[in-house]
Amino acid sequence: MKNLIIPDGYQPAIDIRQTEVAIKDVKDFFERELAKELNLTRVSAPLFVKPETGLNDNLNGVERPVSFGIKEQDDANVEIVHSLAKWKRLALQRYGFTVGEGLYTDMNAIRRDEDTDNIHSIFVDQWDWEKIITKETRTVETLQTIVKNVYNALKATEKFICNKYTYVNPIMPEEISFITTQELEDMYPDSTPKEREYNIAKLKGAVFIMQIGGALNSGERHDGRAPDYDDWSLNGDIIMYYPVLDIALELSSMGIRVDEETLSKQLEICGCMDRAELPFQKALLNGELPYTIGGGIGQSRICMFFLRKAHIGEVQASIWPDDISEYAVANGIALL
């Protein structure tokens, strides 16, 4: 069962019904803390967008979006969002947000090409957030400050859950560490990117791995990033060491968004200058959109982390291969 890890002696500390209550406890508390830390207002967001707007997240460029035709609009094609990375920036302008203010929303997606395992599902649920900054504050210092704000919200949530659910013991370090993908490659030159993430996460407990998307000195990329939302020199992932599964667990991907210069440069690197003619990208290149920082935080991921679950299916309802479902149940893992 290569896609399913069963920790030795694993037994859920709370049953399904108690877990459902605990999921709401985690989500409600963290959502409030995140909004307070980053000065965010909750807004509604679309589940699907028209592909010709250029608003959908292209992720690594190979994932196929789920799409369908709308009968009343002459079967016009729409795509279920992969994330709201671009839509949020447009919404900040449209809704009249100003510098220092931001928004967040519940984002649900279907990623049909995802390889499922203990921490991956074809259903993705996250808080997508975005905040307006100035061009002058598009800096590493700004990025690290915001990362610390998000980490503060995570730390407060762990404390809250530990107090309410006594089987949960604190594991998060007092502070989050920072490292670039190049520094990681230099530290572990013979390791794969995922092995590097595991090594640094286990060493530090919590780490923000910066500068994801561009080529490293080896010529390889640490990981892929779409060229038209994050600035690859000013982004990163929050990675936690998760002892239940002995893995590096990514809880959030975030970054300062591209400006006119970095968008053009990254589109050229990826060989997709044709995107420059799409409405969103064209508006950005013309300087019509605010400068922002933003990201996504996995809702099921943090519930899994804080409730010390062994499988993401214990905190979200999705569809799994029959053999995985049967093996999980046989080993005491109750999938929702």
From TrEMBL:
The EC number(s) this enzyme carries: 6.3.1.1
Swiss-Prot/TrEMBL GO biological process terms: L-asparagine biosynthetic process
Catalytic reaction annotation: L-aspartate + NH4(+) + ATP = L-asparagine + AMP + diphosphate + H(+)
Top enzyme category: ligase
InterPro entries named among the record's database cross-references: aa-tRNA-synth_II, aa-tRNA-synth_II/BPL/LPL, AsnA
Location (main, coarse): cytoplasm
Recorded metabolic or biological pathway in which this protein acts: Amino-acid biosynthesis; L-asparagine biosynthesis; L-asparagine from L-aspartate (ammonia route): step 1/1
Keywords, comma-separated and alphabetical: Amino-acid biosynthesis, Asparagine biosynthesis, ATP-binding, Cytoplasm, Ligase, Nucleotide-binding
Single GO MF annotation: catalytic activity, acting on a protein
Localization, UniProt: Cytoplasm
Lineage: superkingdom: Bacteria
Gene Ontology CC: cytosol
Residue ranges constituting the Aminoacyl-transfer RNA synthetases class-II family profile domain according to the UniProt record: 26-321
Family as reported in the entry's similarity comment: Belongs to the class-II aminoacyl-tRNA synthetase family. AsnA subfamily.
NCBIfam families (UniProt xref): asnA (TIGR00669)
Name listed for the protein in its UniProt record: Aspartate--ammonia ligase
Species this protein is from: Anaerosporobacter mobilis DSM 15930
